[in-house]
Design goal:
about 80 residues, 5 helices, elongated
Length: about 80
């Protein structure tokens, strides 16, 4: 019985993480870019994005804005996202 509860808890945590990433995509590219640019949330955000398959055009816009602002950490994070596929 405890294993079932743990499985459901893990499933709920994963669903919550995916939902958070989806909300960022719905919100604005700017907020997603800010989350990727923040080293504290970068890995979590990239992992969540890989599970919901965000529109490539959104990521291109974020990459372009990051490049224009010389935010190379965000550029590297987006490159890392695409290298997973």
């Amino acid at each position: 019985m405890p294993a079932t509860i743990k499985h459901n808890t893990n499933h709920q945590k994963q669903a919550n993480t995916d939902h958070v990433a989806f909300l960022y995509l719905q919100n604005t590219n700017q907020s997603l870019r800010a989350r990727i640019a923040n080293p504290r949330y970068r890995g979590e955000t990239i992992n969540a994005l890989s599970k919901i398959n965000p529109p490539i055009e959104s990521l291109r816009k974020i990459y372009k804005a990051a490049l224009e602002n010389e935010d190379y950490e965000t550029c590297d994070a987006i490159k890392a996202f695409f290298e997973r596929f």
